Amino acid sequence: MAPNAHLTALTRRIVDRSAQLGIVGLGYVGLPLAVEFAQAGFRVVGIDVDERKVKSVNAGTSHIEDVATSTLRPLVEKKLIRAQADYKGCDKLDAILIAVPTPLRKTKDPDISYIVASLAAIAPQVRAGQLIILESTTYPGTTEEVVLPELTASGLRVGRDVFVAFSPERVDPGNPVYQTKNTPKVVGGVTPSCTKAAALLYGQAIDHVHPVSSTQAAEMIKLLENTFRAVNIGLVNEIALMCEKLCLDVWEVIDGAATKPFGFMRFYPGPGIGGHCIPLDPHYLAWKLKTLNYSARFIELASEINGHMPEVVVRRASAILNQAKKSVKGSKIFVLGVAYKKDTGDVRESPALDVIRLLQEEGAIVSFNDPYSNAFRGEDGRVEKGIALTSKSLAAADLVVIVTDHSVYDYASIVKSAKRVLDTRNATRAVTSGRSKIEKL
Ligand SMILES: NC(=O)c1ccc[n+]([C@@H]2O[C@H](COP(=O)([O-])OP(=O)(O)OC[C@H]3O[C@@H](n4cnc5c(N)ncnc54)[C@H](O)[C@@H]3O)[C@@H](O)[C@H]2O)c1
């Protein structure tokens, strides 16, 4: 076979849509990606160890808010998407994209066990002519140090027989403007042929592809993006603490600074950070640097400040109740929103869970409401269930704490019915009456 015959064959199959794709992990990243490729005309097999997700996808029902069932179902009916809970038939696939979780261990060290587990299932089936792309966020070096050796253990040569790349996902759940298709995709291959094959594949489904020189650069780009957010949120949270000391309204200060048309970018303070990315990803970078005897100071500081915000919320709640001659112990506190981000139901790493736990530890009687996620499992494994948001449930609380600023909430009615409100997101900015009841972060 000529040196680049596998690349030529793969290219042809990608361009004429006969290439079969596998997407490992049908979560927030994998399912939208599967839909995008299916809409571009590819047959996609989704592999997920969670049988419930497999069943729901095969029934054409989406479990991800950003993917409408009305979008998914026709693709399943046309047999462009199907899901399975095992790795059978990976050798038949032309490209496999891995989008499994990359959490942290309790020690804040990277937990790449999901990547390792999926590789262990894929590697024995890898054959010449395949393209394997890691999408999960991870530390620089993972693709070459962890993924590549597994895929080439059988003697396949990277860039000649098998093509390996890293391409970070940038999905922003709930973003009405930027979704998978119109968010530029960074791609870095182990060799130029790997980059070429991966960029070609993404180019079929995604509007703009940005190739970079290596897998490590692609891995680092993702970590820069999320570290940038974590550090700037940490900065603005600290500015909020400073404003509190100075008796200034941090929201007014941010609005004022944002009138500068250059050199300033808005970030908002809040009860802390959550989700699968911002609180976790920078630690992947910090961990890697630790192995090189370098301390990632901005990351550590931002993590400390952001991680402290739920305690700030509880301190503020306590101060408000104190003004009303009440203690946290025994007070009824109604938390609005438990998702980490507005208009989503994602409670992973949500600061609301910390706020609720800390309030409970102080003896408060805490209830909550979230229109997107009205039940969650606490650290102790117990399922906490939300209550209805009514004028009665609001009025019954000694304090209402707005933790997530969901757009569907009617903030004027909330303030009207509540005795007191602690607004950690400036969600009540447009409310005109009852302002004396509102305290902001
Ligand atoms: N959610 C986001 O907004 C976002 C954005 C950018 C990047 N990322 C990154 O993308 C990756 C995936 O994140 P996500 O939010 O989609 O996670 P997720 O938990 O929503 O989905 C991951 C899926 O992988 C499945 N899975 C776990 N182990 C598996 C295995 N061995 N084989 C097959 N399937 C397996 C899980 O059942 C789950 O459905 C992570 O590295 C994350 O950091 C996430």
N-end to C-end Cα span:
66 Å
**Estimated radius of gyration:** 24 Å
Low-confidence stretches: none
Q: Which percent range describes the beta-strand content?
A: 5-15%
User: Compounds present?
Assistant: nicotinamide-adenine-dinucleotide
Q: How much helix, percentage-wise, in residues?
A: 25-40%
Number of strands: 15
| Average residue-wise pLDDT | 96
Task: Categorize the overall geometry.
Answer: elongated
- H/E element string? HEHEHHEEHEHEEHEHHHHEHEEEHEHEE
Strands of the biggest beta sheet: in what spatial order? Answer: 3-2-1-4-5-6-7-8
Number of helices: 14
- Describe the biggest sheet? 8 strands, mixed
Topology summary:
Layout: H1 5-15, E1 20-24, H2 30-39, E2 43-47, H3 51-58, H4 69-77, E3 81-84, E4 95-98, H5 113-122, E5 131-134, H6 142-152, E6 163-166, E7 185-189, H7 192-205, E8 209-212, H8 215-245, H9 250-257, H10 281-291, H11 297-323, E9 332-336, H12 351-361, E10 365-369, E11 375-377, E12 383-385, H13 391-396, E13 399-402, H14 411-417, E14 421-423, E15 438-440
Parallel strand pairs: 1-2, 1-4, 2-3, 4-5, 5-6, 7-8, 9-10, 9-13, 13-14, 14-15
Antiparallel strand pairs: 6-7, 11-12
Helix pairs in contact: 1-7, 5-6, 8-10, 8-11, 11-12
The chain binds nicotinamide-adenine-dinucleotide.
Tell me what you see in this structure:
- The structure is a single chain.
- The protein is an alpha/beta fold and 441 residues long.
- Helices cover 39% and strands 14% of the residues.
- It has 14 helices and 15 strands.
- It has helices at 5-15, 30-39, 51-58, 69-77, 113-122, 142-152, 192-205, 215-245, 250-257, 281-291, 297-323, 351-361, 391-396, 411-417, and strands spanning 20-24, 43-47, 81-84, 95-98, 131-134, 163-166, 185-189, 209-212, 332-336, 365-369, 375-377, 383-385, 399-402, 421-423, 438-440.
- The chain has an eight-stranded mixed sheet, with helices on both faces. Strands 10-9-13-14-15 form a five-stranded parallel sheet.
- Strand 7, helix 7 (192-205) and strand 8 (209-212) form a beta-alpha-beta unit.
- Helix 8 packs across helix 10 (281-291) and helix 11 (297-323) packs across helix 12 (351-361).
- The longest helix has 31 residues, at 215-245.
- The chain is elongated and about 80 Å long.
- The structure holds nicotinamide-adenine-dinucleotide.
- Nicotinamide-adenine-dinucleotide binds at residues 24-30, 47-50, 53, 99-102, 114, 117-118, 135-137, 169-171, 173, 276-277.
